[in-house]
Amino acid sequence: MFERILVAIDGSLTADEAFDYALALAVARKARLHVLFVVDIPVAYVADADPFPFIEAMRLQGENIRKLAGERLKGAGVEGDVEIRELLPLGGDVSHQINLAAEEWHADVIVIGTHGRRGVRRLALGSVAENCVRQATRPVILIPGTKTQANDEVL
User: Fold this and answer.
1) H-helix segments, 77-127
2) CB 129 within 8 A of CB 155
3) Which domains does the chain have, with CATH numbers?
4) I want to staple 33 with a disulfide (CB 3.0 to 4.6 A). Which of 65, 80, 85, 154 is the partner?
5) Alpha-carbon distance 72 to 61, whole Å?
6) What is the pTM of this model?
């Protein structure tokens, strides 16, 4: 059923759980896996500062993710690749880039983690997963985070 799986990751524990799920699904289905990391610096983080150190830090994070994801693909015997996309100028739409990558790569399904934020935190921070689902033209599997970080707590 799923021969081409795209998983969007961002370096968070929730995204790691989505990657784990997508990797297991790819193994079970003998599918190809496309791992996507989008370099995005919210404008709020750089409003009063030079944005280039933040951009470079995100690029470095992307390269680390590329290396680790590539090693995990190889270790699991899964065919696939890792793509890094950049949103410049700052403050672009990550969910649009996820759906665009899925379309360009002809993914059968998108796998993405969700933090499960509610109320004010959801309004303040937005939801890439929710927007991805709303914009999607293919199935999306949402993986709720079970590993918590201090900044991922649900209000």
Assistant:
1) 94-105, 119-125
2) no
3) 4-143 (3.40.50.620)
4) 80
5) 16
6) 0.84
Length of the chain: 155
Q: What's 42's DSSP letter?
A: -
Residue 112, φ and ψ in degrees, nearest 5: -145, 145
Determine the distance from the C-alpha atom of residue 136 to the mean position of all C-alpha atoms in its chain, rounded to a whole number.
14
Q: What is the mean pLDDT of residues 85-97?
A: 79
Letter string b/e over residues 44-71, b meaning 16 or more CB atoms within 10 A of that residue's CB: eebeeeeeeebbeebeeebeebbebbee
Structure tokens, 58: 């995100």
What does the pLDDT look like over 10-45, one tens digit per residue? 888 999 999 999 999 999 999 999 999 998 766 655
Q: Is 110 helix (H, G, I), strand (E, B) or coil?
A: strand
Which residues make beta-bridge pairs with 36?
Answer: 8, 83
